[in-house]
Amino acid sequence: MTAPHPFGHTLTAATLQARFAPLRSWEDRYRQLILLARELPPLEETLRQPELELSGCENRVWLGGELLPDGTLHFYGDSEGRIVKGLLAILLTGAEGKRPQEILAGDPLALFNQLNIRDQLSASRASGLDALAQSILRIAARYA
């Protein structure tokens, strides 16, 4: 598995919902995003390839994926920005370990709505998040 991480495995959607549920202010949610960013291991320089770099984001972001032998997808990525990296961690949590058809049939951003994060993002961050979601869908479509 390329660039393993805890998101979608030990850190699940339920785990994130439990972390975010007591947070009432955007500042507290913002701090939680920074903490999540710290839990996403940095991507090796060899994986920071131009074909994995996304455009449309405030910060440099890399996102890749691979089909595992069991038919599920493993996603990996990194960002130079802490908030964007925290958003990426949530996106990885929602997509990791699913089959391509599951991802294509769902909304990659559904977890953001459940955590009450999406509506609080600036226009540029929301645009970057949409670019990340589209990349997840492209990767899933490649393996479907």
Structure description:
- This is Cysteine desulfuration protein SufE.
- It holds the Pfam family SufE.
- It is a single chain.
- The chain has a single domain, classed as Sufe protein. Chain: A.
- The mean pLDDT is 94.
- The chain is 47% helix and 10% strand.
- A two-stranded antiparallel ribbon has the order 1-2.
- Strand 1 and strand 2 form a beta hairpin.
- Helix 2 packs across helix 3 and helix 3 packs parallel to helix 6.
- The protein is globular.
- It is built from six helices and two strands, in the order ααββαααα.
- By secondary structure, it is mainly alpha-helical.
What is the compact description of this entry?
The chain is mainly alpha-helical and 144 residues long. 47% of the residues lie in helices and 10% in strands. The protein has six helices and two strands.
Give the topology, please.
Layout: H1 13-20, H2 26-39, E1 61-67, E2 73-79, H3 82-95, H4 100-105, H5 110-114, H6 123-143
Antiparallel strand pairs: 1-2
Helix pairs in contact: 2-3, 3-6
Please give the CATH class: Alpha Beta
On the 0-100 scale, what is the average pLDDT? 94
The global form is globular
Helix content: 40-55%
* Strand runs, count: 2
Strand order of the largest sheet: 1-2
Round the Cα radius of gyration to an integer and report it. Answer: 14 Å
Question: What portion of residues belong to β-strands?
Answer: 5-15%
Total number of domains: 1
End-to-end separation in angstroms reads 19 Å
Please report the number of helical segments.
6
What are the segments in which pLDDT stays under 50 over at least 5 consecutive residues? none
